[in-house]
Every structure is written in C-alpha cells, then in structure tokens.
Amino acid sequence: MPRITCPVLADRVTTAEAAAELIRPGDSVGISGFTGAGYPKAVPAALARRIEAAHARGEEFTVGLWSGASTAPEVDGALAEVHGIDKRLPYNSDPTLRALINSGEVDYVDSHLSHSAQHMWFGFYGNLDVAVVEVAAILPNGLLVPGSSVGNNKTWLDQADRVILEVNSWQPRDFEGFHDIYYGTALPPHRFPLQLTHSFQRIGDPYLRVDPAKVLAVVETNAPDRNSAFKEPDEASRAMADLLVDFLRHEVKRGRMPADLLPLQSGVGNVANAVMAGLRVSEFENLTAFTEVIQDGMLDLIDSGTLRSVSATSFGLSPTGVQRFLDNVGAYKGKILLRSEEISNHPELVRRLGVIAINGMIEADIYGNVNSTHVMGSAIMNGIGGSGDFARNAFLNFFVSPSTAKDGAISAIVPMASHVDHTEHDVHVLVTEQGLADLRGLSPTDRAERVIANCAHPDYRDALTDYVERAQAARPTARHTPHLLTEALSWHARYLETGHM
Asked: Where in the sequence numbering do the catalytic residues fall?
C-alpha cells in the first residue's frame, strides 16, 4: 500500500540530501522523536554530512535542536560528532552530546516536558525555522498518520516556517487510529479546561495536521527506531519493586485508593520494568496507565490482561518488545493511545486523574529533596524529563534508586542534595533496595530519621545520623531543618577529591 497518497505532497518527494539543503546555518530545527522512537532517520544524517563538509571548508554551521525528548545516535549523536549543535532542548540522553553540553560547547535548556511546547508558543525559545517530522503515512487529504511517538510534533508542525516530512514505511500502516491529537490548546487568557476525565478518553483527532504550503520536502525511508535492550532486573531492582508493590497493597487496605489502583506512570529503566513485572504477578487487575513511555513491562501487563489500557506519548521498547508489537498490532489497538506530550504530561490531567508516579533519581538528601539530573552538582546526566510534571501533581509519587553507586563509593542518600529538581514539598516516598520511606505528613527532622533508617546503605547510616545530631546541637535556635553549612556538601567534595564519599 502506498504511504503517500496526497497528490500535492507526493510531488514534493525528494532525497534526504536535497531536504537537508533547506536547513540553513543558525536555524532552529524542531524534530520528531521521544525516547528513541519516531525520530527522523535520514535528514539528520544528511544534515550532519553537510555540516561536516562546511566545517572542513572553514565555514561556521550549527543549528538549534528541539525535540520531544531523547532521540538516537542517528540524530543527537551524528550532529554532536560534527559539532553541529549550538543549543539543545528539552531533553537529551546521548553520551556524545552530553559531553559537549558539560564542556560548555552546547547550551542546554533542560525543561519540564509539559512546558516545552507552551514555552515555544510564548516565544521563550525564539522562532522555529524548520520542522523535520517522521510519520507513518500521508493521506489523500493531507492529514498525517503519526508513528511510534508524538512528543511535540503537533506544535513543531504548527509553528515552524518550513516543514520536512519523513514517511517511514517501517512504521506500521496500522498505526492509524492509535493516536489522539488535541487541537484545543490556546494561550492565556483564552484557555479552557481539558475535558478528559479518565485515562483512555479521546479528546482529539487521530491525525496530525500540517499546512501543505509549508511542506517543502517529503523523504521516504524504511528504517527501524532505536530499540535498546533492557537488562534483566537485578536483585536491587526486584527488591525495590517488591517494596513498592507491597506499599500499594497497604494503601488499598487503608482505603486511600481503589483495588484496581489509580492510573500508573513510570519512568524509563530497569526498576520501572521490575515494578511492572511485580504487578503482573500480584493480585492487582483491571489497571490503567497514564504515562509518557510504553516499555516492555507494560506490554507484558496488557498481554496478561492485568492492564486494560495505557495512554502515553511514545514507545520505548526493546528489540524483542518491538517485534512483539509489530507482530500483534491489531491486538493492541483499543488498548494503547498515543498523545502529544503537552497532554500526556499535563499537570491538570495528572492531578485530576490521581496518577501514581514512579521515577528514578540520582540522589536524595535526608530531608527528601531529590536530584534527578546532575552528577556531583554540576554535570548534567540526561534531564528532568517528565518526572516533575508527574511528581508535583501526582496523587502518590515514588522516587527510586539503589542506595549506593560506583561499588559503594557514592551514597544515594546524602546530607544535602548537590542539585534539587524535586523539593521536599513534592516528594512522597523514597525507595532503595534497603527499604521504603513514606515522607507524607512528616516534619523535616522526622523525615531525616525515616530516610536514614529505611533507605540509606548501612555503610553510611552512622555518618548521616551523626551529621543530623551535630547539626541540631550546633544551632539550637535553627532546628527545623538542621544543617551544617560547612559540611553539607562535603561528601560530594570528598568524592571528587578521593573517589569515595
């Protein structure tokens, strides 16, 4: 079946090289892609080659790169390797680009994912010159069938001066009907409440729209998404999953949530997949999810009948998970819905639906402040992503991490977080393989006692307790959140000097 059936846009089919010529030095380029799914496969590589050739001639050539979230080595990696990016937003996980960000070569705007589209509308990022968006098909009337991610595609297509479409025949043609694209957004003061009251409700259209006059090139591709294999959950991940699932049982028994729980959100990684595995073998059933990314664990829950529906903005599957989805696309229709990230992460909806949020962290301090983005205070790892969207507005949120890193040289529980993404006011429950600390309703000193006792590794508990006791004694009139300011970040400084906290 042909993928491009709109006569007007079929006349604009060209090569990736010709399309890349439409991108100029200094342009801001909005691309599709979210967690390695749905990113353009050909034009970024052609652009990287063009930039490399320009640099070889002594010409300056960089672009600003905007996306939904992370992409793949063929995009972030390829453009970073030729030093072709001057600004990146709102999220990145590529190691080559990360090094350039941390060296100061690339400016990085790390923002809440729910904010990225609206900040563009507000004009905070400047003009969007070009959008390069992958789709599964172009219909006769010019409507676009989205692919394996939606992200910020709607906004890029709306706002860009020029548009390049990549039509990827690897994406299932049966994706038509999997999406819900909401076109009711507006700028303040003209906004209306979002009329979504359950996680799988449709409030938009199955298609993306674009003004055909702005589409200057269409490129045909047939290439898979980047699909990273997940490691099998290790002992620590399984321990955290068991603690979390057991805590949900406790909440149901206390009458705080129904037996089929509330909509689930989980970040990307092995702990999230381990939690999904724990739910699959638990007594919970008839579950729903309102999340960003669909990982293998959620497919497992759908296949087992435990999860009846999942709303997200993207897939983030392993190669095995991708093949399972491709082999059974029809069986997943009506159970999976992909939305724009401004809807999948919308604070209004997260709060209304009462989401249970599960996200990873780099470290937490004894009072519950969480750092999810920076290593030793200054070096970015990936970015805040959607964790803040969900954590601040969730009915119940969890932050999870092994209690130590680097073979015990680093404690994930520290006196003071070296960078704060989620303040103590937003953090409900901390989980490590050592235990779980429910921080709701506790004063700072009670939080510290519980975090140290339940979550810190035994090798660090005595030192953390000693820190709190000495901080309380040092300033008798400042015991609300006791700190020794000359020592609060000394653990991080010691690691940088000696290689051990």
From this structure: 292
43 neighbors 219 (Cβ within 8 angstroms): yes
Interaxial angle between packed helices 270-280 and 235-253, expressed in degrees from 0 to 180 and rounded to the nearest 10: 50
Beta strands in 367-418 (DSSP E): 370-371, 374-375, 379-380, 396-400, 404-405, 410-411, 413-414
Check residue 135 and report its DSSP letter. E
Instruction: Give me the mean pLDDT over the 181-207 stretch.
Output: 95
Report phi then psi at 207, rounded to 5. -125, 155
Kindly report the CA angle at 134 between 100 and 215, in degrees rounded to 5?
Answer: 105
Q: Which of 365, 347, 363 is nearest to 355 (CA)?
A: 347
The one-letter code for the residue type at 206 is P
Residues 226, 32: Cα–Cα separation, whole Å:
13
Pairing of strands 363-365, 370-371: antiparallel
Residue 117 makes CB contacts below 8 A (sequence gap 6+) with 152, 154, 155, 185, 340, 341, 342
β-sheet bridge partners, residue 310: 289, 336
pTM of the complete model:
0.95
Q: Which SS3 state, helix, strand or coil, does residue 207 take? A: coil
Contact 19, 43 (CB under 8 A): yes
What average pLDDT does this structure show over 267-275? 81
Q: Kindly give, in sequence order, each residue whose CB lies less than 8 Å from that of residue 94, ignoring residues fewer than 6 positions away.
A: 70, 71, 72, 73, 76, 77, 80
Closest CA to 86 of 114, 66, 67: 66
Structure confidence by residue, pLDDT tens digits, 124-157: 999 999 999 999 999 999 999 999 999 999 999 9
Residue 446: phi, psi to the nearest 5?
-70, -35
Q: Place 1 in a pLDDT band, splitting at 50, 70 and 90.
A: confident
Q: Whole-angstrom Cα distance, residue 94 to residue 89? A: 13
Angle between helices 319-327 and 296-304 (to 10 degrees): 40
Q: 138: part of which helix (H) or strand (E)?
A: strand 137-138
**How large is the average pLDDT for residues 204-211?**
98
